[in-house]
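Hi all, long-time lurker, first post. I run a small reading group and we've been trying to get comfortable going from sequence to structure in the token notation. Rather than ask abstract questions, I figured I'd post a concrete chain and ask someone more experienced to write out its structure so we can walk through it together at our next meeting. Sequence below, copied exactly:
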Amino acid sequence: MTHTINLPHIETKMLREILSFLKPDEDRQVWLVGGSIRDLLRGYTALPDLDLATSFNPIAVAREYARKTGAGFVVLDEERKVVRVVRTFNDEPYTFDLSQFRAENIDADLRARDFTINAIAARLTMPDEQSGLATRTSETDCELELYDPLSGREHLDQGLIIPCSENLFTDDPLRLMRAFRFSALFNASFSEQLHAMIVAQAPLLKDVSGERIRDELFKVLQVNNSTRWVRIMHETGILQIIFPQLAACQGVEQNEWHHLDVFEHSMLTLANLEKLLLATKNRPEWWAAFIRYLDENLSGNRTYRQLLKLGSLLHDLGKPDCRRIDHESGKVIFHGHEMEGVRITRDISEALRLSVNENNYLQLLVKNHMRPGVMLQQGITDKRLFRFFSETGRDGLGIAMLSLADRCSAQGALSTDEMTEFELGIMSIMQAFYEQLKKPKLAPLLNGNDLITQFKLKPGPEFRRILEALEEAQFLGEICTRADALARVAKLLEP
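-- Answer (accepted) --
Happy to help. Here is the structure in token form:
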């Protein structure tokens, strides 16, 4: 049975333009391949990225196309003859990735790809021929006939990720991670063969660079129920390679506040975090603003939400090294596990080549994940709220949500406090942040020049300590005038 797809009008227009340079014929084949076909079959109505496979080296032609149209041009892989062109249509950027066949013909090329859902192609011909882009079905699209030797379309419909060959991972070990990415994004399952191959060849991932692993991992964390795929990563041995520090948490028993070991508690914390973020019933009016914050990019295209999920997995990594038995009570304690966790988190951030901002955010989460709970135990006061958000800023919101997910995942015999009450307490901490945003920021009563002229102080760390103390006192209403501030500084400087 012959299957076809309809290509949207703007993509048709772009392809017609680049084909006028590529000049395909019987000996110069050009095929639309890979993700472009897959996404069309999944119902996408726009394709900002188009993948073309050619029977010839496309670099020189692509360079000429870019020169004459003003498009961006970069050679991605000289040896494999892969080139990228970025062309603007209707003020929107579109990317063409062109590559020469990986083997002698299109059939062999498709069989050398990773998964069958990415091994579907459509032959492109010149517009004046009676096939390819010449076959118009309407004013808005054109019809392309699919070439699908490995039944990728059927597997896509069935929700199955199936390898193209047994050389899948030896050819490129990163495909171990790509398998999880596609499974997560398409809510698809591994075939039995693929699952067995991942288990057997998981150690190959050790040879892949941290940044390549990072990019695939964050695409898994992008989905709403990433816990499912993180769990399968663990079952197949992949998670142990990415995060050996997390694997070390297996079997580390906790105290009576917990019902799970450290590893399972961390997994449950991720699951509960995802449930909390998806919940919409009875959410306060500021909740939408909080979700917008989580979906902002912190670095590149990686969001606060993805990093918060990663932080939920890492938050207790310090516990194995800090586990002790209290001599007096005989109970298990983990004193200082937050700071040990910060050290381990720093190592993981460096291994994944995360940015400085991402590294700092993860360390902030791990260091402070218990702080909101302690605040609730001690009692919420304006001073405690001020100090918490002064030190953490907007990121205190993520810390509060991690604290709630952490608490939801601790259901031991001693964990008797009412969860609803704890959640309301966390929400009140977060609400305090948004209520403060509505208020006009108070103008400082003194500045650094005042400290120099009035108290003969020299700029340095003491400046910051004094100015922060004045800001806190002013916020709490303890000082209201310049005279009050001068008196407070004098008191702070008393020996």
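A couple of things your group might point at:
Residues 186 and 329 are 51 Å apart (CA to CA).
The longest strand covers residues 92-100.
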